[in-house]
Amino acid sequence: MADFDKEGAKNEIAESLSLSTSCMQQIGFSFKRPNRFATYYRQKLIFILCVCSICYHLFSEVVIIGLTLFNSPRVEDVVPLLHIVGYGILSIAKVFVLWYKKDVFGQLLDELADIWPMSPLEKEAQNIKNKSLSGLRIAHQWYFWLNISGVWFFNITPIALFFFRTWRGQHAEIGFVWMSWYPFDKQQPVAHVAVYLFEMFAGQEDCEVGTHAYTTGCSHLTPEPTCAEPRPKPRKGRICDYSACYCDPPTVRDTKTMKCVQVHECDHD
């Protein structure tokens, strides 16, 4: 049996996690400590800024809901605000989990390299691997662009409405991305621009944390379901490929059934 190429496995895992890694960089998060001093503190600053923006975004939405209930407790005025609060709560919960369990996630990804199926594989095993990675990549990209398009729909809607009303000869003003509360007059010109940019940033960070960095990363850490299946009884003619093993030793992967079996149940060349 050829020596297992762990570095090659790490490179393949990193490639399959490229979208998640990019999103984590956008929020200043990483499972590995940067080597450079400046990079480390820049990453920390971005992460703190991201968390503060998400927390204030959620707080401002909760205040708006409270004021709306107090001034006009109508269902049609309150319900449209609730889903934004829900996204904020999920984003804060997920960024906390990522931060609190970052060492665990990093260790699991490192251990994943030990059981990652590497070439040479049997043709059937290689096809399964290629299809799995292709399906995972498509799901990640679809999920990414779906959520990004939703966020940018909110971001550009006030500007699009402004140009549409101007084109129709109506009085038009650029509104805001979200219904948020601020302890100052956000209608002032400078404040208006600052608030609009902040709301675009906060919404983008909500999306990066809540959907991409967390979801695409955790998709690699789901236990392999076949490992929980009862091991089949030994039979003749079974050939096992150690490099195709997804399970913990002393089990290996049967290249015919793709199930985990004990080492002594396999025929060896």
TrEMBL record:
GO terms for biological process: signal transduction. Keywords: Membrane, Olfaction, Receptor, Sensory transduction, Transducer, Transmembrane, Transmembrane helix. The chain crosses the membrane at residues 45-69, 81-100, 142-164. GO terms for cellular component: membrane. CDD domains: TIL. It is found in: Membrane. Pfam families: 7tm_6 (PF02949). It comes from the Eukaryota. GO terms for molecular function: odorant binding; olfactory receptor activity. Coiled coil: none annotated. It is a multi-pass membrane protein. This is Uncharacterized protein. It comes from Papilio machaon.
